[in-house]
C-alpha cells in the first residue's frame, strides 16, 4: 500500500476503535435476536404475505431468502424513472434461484436539478436523513433476510446506506440504473447558461439547450454527485462489478440487475458465503471510497456524505483524513466538470474497471475488502460483457482515451485536488481539480450576502464588476438546510471570464457540477450560532489561498476580536421548510456529515 493511504487507514481504524466495536456488537446481536420470519407470529406473517399471494407458498416454510426491495422510484427524476419495472423483474429472477422478493418500501427521491436555486433546495440535504429513516421503516418489518437498494442520485444513495447500515447484519446490494445516453455536450450547455446570465440569449434558447442535455431516462451525464455515488459503490464493492455506468434499457443492464438479485440470494447467513452489509462497509472500504473520490475528481458533496455513511457503520473519517489522502492520490480521470468528456465517454475509455485495477496496482486502493461479488476488490477490475445471453467479465484493457483516463504513473495531476482551508473565517473545503492554477490564490474585497438570490440581483445590476470574494452566509445546515448554490456558477464564471479575480466563500454547499470558480465551501462553524463567517463585512480584504491552505480576512486581530456577528435572517417558511425545523435544530457540523438523525442517535 501507498504509505500515506496506509497511515490514514490506521488513523481511521484507531480513532474508530470504540465506535466500530459497538457497531459490530450491534449487528451481531441483531443477527442473533432478529425477529425474522421463523419468530414472527402467524397473524404477522399472514399480513406480510397477503400482498403477494403468488409467492405465499414459497414464503411459508421460511427457509429461503426473502429479499426486501427498497426503491427510490419516481418518474420525475430521470435517473430513477428506470426503476419502474425493476421490482416485478426482480421477483421473477429471485424465483429462478428459489428466493422471493417484495417491495419493502419506497423512499423519497427529490431532484436537485429541479429545485436548484429555489426554495425546495432547502429540503435537499435533509431529504437524505428522511431517506435513512424511510429505509429503516421499510426494513423494520423483520420479514427479510436481505435487501436490494434501488437508488442513484445525490442524497438517495447516502441516505439508503445510512439507514441500511443500522440493519448491517443483512446482506445488501445496491442496484444502479445507469446514465442516459449523451446529449448536448456539458460544455456547450454551460456556455448557453453563461450567455443567458449575461442577457445574450433568451429563455427559449436556454430551455432548448437544457432539454437537449437532459433528454431521456437515466442519470445526468456530468460527473456530479449522482455519478460520484456510483463510482463509490464500485470501489466499496457494493455493486455487481462494472455496473455503475452501463446505459438503461440495454441487455447488459438487465443482466447485471438479474445477477445482483441472484447474488443477493447467495450471500445470506444460512449459506456458506455470508456477506452482511456491516462487514462489507469497514474502515478500508470507507478509505477506498475517499480515494476513488479524489482519484476521479468527484463531487464535493461527499465531504458531507462520506463521513455520514461512515458514522452509520461506527467509523469516523474527517476532513484532515481527506486532505492527507488527497495529497497522496493522483488524479487519473478527467470527466466534466473536470474535463470535456461525460460519463459515457469515461465508460468507453475504460471506466471503473480501469480505475480500480490501476489504483489497486499502484497501492492506492485496499484490495482486501469484503465485497458483495467476489473474493476481494480485484473482481471489480474486470468489465461486464455479454457472451450471447450469458453475463461474463473480462479483464479491463488499457485506457481507450488518455485525455479522459490515465494511469497513476502518468496522472493528470499528482494529487486529488481537495484541500482543507483554515483561518480566522473558520474551516472550509475547496476542490481545485478543475480550477486553473493561477486562480488557486485569490485576494480581493468581500461582498457579503445572506441569500443567493441577492447575489444574482447584484450581478444583474453590475455591482460585482470587479475583483471580488462573494461571501454567502447563513447557508449552513442549522440555518436553512445547507442548500447547494450552483445557480451562482454561471454569473461568477462570467465575471471570471471577464478577467476579474473571483472566489466564493460560503457555509453552504456547491453542486457536484461546480468547477472552475474557486469556492471555499462548508465553512464551519456556520454563521448561525456565531461562526466567524458572520463577522465578515463588505469591503474586508479576503485571501483564499489553496496553495497554503488558508482562508483569512486581512483585518487587524484586535479589530476582528471586537466585531459582533451579523444578525441571522428569520427562518424561512413555505415549501414545507418549516416542517424540517427539527432537523435543522438538531444537525451537527458539516465535517461530521451535517446529519440530524445521526446526531440524534448519538452516533
* Helix fraction bin: 25-40%
Structural class: alpha/beta
Q: Treating each run of at least 4 consecutive H or I residues as one helix, how many helices?
A: 26
Radius of gyration: 24 Å
- Biggest sheet record: 8 strands, mixed
**Total number of beta strands:** 14
The shape, in one word, is globular
Strand order of the biggest β-sheet: 7-8-12-11-10-9-13-14
> What's the overall average pLDDT, rounded?
95
Provide the domain count. Answer: 2
Low-confidence runs: none
Distance from N terminus to C terminus (CA atoms, Å) equals: 30 Å
Portion in beta strands: 5-15%
Task: Set out the fold topology.
Layout: H1 3-15, H2 17-33, H3 36-39, H4 42-50, H5 56-59, E1 66-71, H6 78-81, H7 86-96, E2 100-106, H8 112-115, H9 124-139, E3 146-150, H10 156-164, E4 172-175, H11 186-197, H12 203-213, H13 225-235, H14 251-266, H15 277-280, H16 283-296, H17 302-312, H18 319-328, H19 343-349, H20 351-361, E5 382-387, E6 390-395, E7 418-423, E8 426-431, E9 441-449, H21 452-460, E10 468-472, H22 477-480, H23 489-497, E11 502-506, E12 519-524, E13 541-545, E14 550-553, H24 557-562, H25 581-586, H26 596-600
Parallel strand pairs: 1-2, 1-3, 3-4, 9-10, 10-11, 11-12
Antiparallel strand pairs: 5-6, 7-8, 8-12, 9-13, 13-14
Helix pairs in contact: 1-16, 1-18, 7-14, 9-10, 10-17, 11-12, 11-23, 13-16
Amino acid at each position: 500500500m501507498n504509505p500515506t493511504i496506509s497511515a490514514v487507514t490506521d488513523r481511521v481504524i484507531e480513532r474508530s476503535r470504540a465506535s466500530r466495536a459497538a457497531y459490530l456488537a450491534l449487528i451481531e446481536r441483531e443477527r442473533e435476536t432478529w425477529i425474522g420470519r421463523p419468530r414472527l407470529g402467524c397473524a404477522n406473517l399472514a399480513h406480510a404475505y397477503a400482498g403477494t399471494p403468488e409467492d405465499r407458498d414459497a414464503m411459508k416454510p421460511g427457509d429461503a431468502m426473502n429479499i426486501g426491495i427498497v426503491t427510490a422510484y419516481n418518474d420525475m427524476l430521470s435517473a430513477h424513472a428506470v426503476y419502474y419495472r425493476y421490482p416485478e423483474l426482480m421477483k421473477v429472477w429471485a424465483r429462478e434461484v428459489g428466493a422471493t422478493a417484495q417491495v419493502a418500501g419506497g423512499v423519497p427521491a427529490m431532484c436537485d436539478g429541479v429545485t436548484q436555486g429555489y426554495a425546495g433546495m432547502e429540503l435537499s440535504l435533509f431529504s437524505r436523513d428522511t431517506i435513512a429513516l424511510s429505509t429503516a421503516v421499510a426494513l423494520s418489518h423483520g420479514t427479510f433476510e436481505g435487501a436490494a437498494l434501488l437508488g442513484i442520485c445525490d442524497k438517495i444513495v447516502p441516505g439508503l446506506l445510512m439507514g441500511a447500515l443500522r440493519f448491517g447484519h443483512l446482506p445488501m446490494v445496491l442496484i444502479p440504473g445507469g446514465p442516459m445516453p449523451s446529449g448536448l455536450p456539458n460544455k456547450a450547455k454551460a456556455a448557453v447558461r453563461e450567455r443567458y446570465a449575461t442577457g445574450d440569449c433568451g429563455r427559449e434558447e436556454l430551455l432548448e439547450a437544457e432539454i437537449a442535455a437532459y433528454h431521456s431516462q437515466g442519470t445526468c451525464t456530468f460527473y456530479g454527485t449522482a455519478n460520484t455515488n456510483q463510482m463509490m459503490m464500485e470501489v466499496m464493492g457494493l455493486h455487481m462489478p462494472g455496473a455503475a455506468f452501463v446505459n438503461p434499457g440495454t441487455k447488459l443492464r438487465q443482466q447485471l440487475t438479474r445477477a445482483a438479485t441472484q447474488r443477493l440470494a447467495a450471500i445470506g447467513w444460512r449459506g456458506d458465503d455470508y456477506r452482511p452489509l456491516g462487514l462489507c462497509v469497514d474502515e478500508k472500504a470507507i478509505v477506498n471510497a475517499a480515494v476513488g473520490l479524489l482519484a476521479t475528481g468527484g463531487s464535493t458533496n461527499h465531504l458531507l456524505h462520506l463521513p455520514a455513511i461512515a458514522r452509520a457503520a461506527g467509523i469516523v473519517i474527517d476532513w484532515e483524513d481527506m486532505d492527507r489522502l488527497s495529497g497522496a492520490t493522483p488524479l487519473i480521470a478527467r470527466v466534466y466538470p473536470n474535463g470535456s468528456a461525460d460519463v459515457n465517454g469515461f465508460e468507453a475509455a475504460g471506466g471503473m474497471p480501469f480505475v480500480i485495477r490501476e489504483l489497486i496496482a499502484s497501492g492506492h486502493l485496499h484490495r482486501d475488502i469484503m465485497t458483495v461479488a467476489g473474493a476481494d476488490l480485484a473482481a471489480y477490475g474486470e468489465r461486464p460483457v455479454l457472451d450471447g445471453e450469458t453475463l461474463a467479465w473480462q479483464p479491463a484493457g488499457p485506457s481507450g482515451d488518455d485525455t479522459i483516463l490515465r494511469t497513476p504513473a502518468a496522472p493528470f495531476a499528482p494529487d486529488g485536488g481537495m484541500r482543507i482551508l483554515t483561518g480566522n473565517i473558520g474551516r472550509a473545503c475547496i476542490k481545485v481539480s478543475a480550477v486553473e492554477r493561477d486562480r488557486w490564490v485569490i485576494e480581493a474585497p468581500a461582498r457579503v450576502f445572506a441569500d443567493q438570490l441577492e447575489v444574482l440581483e447584484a450581478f444583474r445590476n453590475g455591482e460585482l464588476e470587479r475583483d471580488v470574494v462573494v461571501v454567502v452566509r447563513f447557508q449552513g445546515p442549522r440555518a436553512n438546510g445547507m442548500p447547494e448554490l450552483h445557480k451562482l456558477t454561471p454569473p461568477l464564471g462570467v465575471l471570471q471570464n471577464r478577467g476579474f479575480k473571483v472566489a466564493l466563500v460560503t457555509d453552504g454547499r456547491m453542486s457536484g457540477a461546480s468547477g472552475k470558480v474557486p469556492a471555499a465551501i462548508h465553512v464551519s462553524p456556520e454563521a448561525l450560532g456565531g461562526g466567524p463567517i458572520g463577522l465578515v463585512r463588505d469591503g474586508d480584504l479576503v485571501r483564499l489561498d489553496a496553495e497554503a491552505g488558508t482562508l483569512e480576512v486581512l483585518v487587524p486581530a484586535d479589530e476582528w476580536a471586537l466585531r459582533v456577528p451579523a444578525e441571522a435572517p428569520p427562518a424561512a417558511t413555505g415549501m414545507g421548510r418549516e416542517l424540517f425545523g427539527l432537523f435543522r435544530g438538531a444537525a451537527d457540523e458539516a465535517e461530521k456529515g451535517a446529519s440530524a438523525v445521526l446526531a440524534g442517535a448519538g452516533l
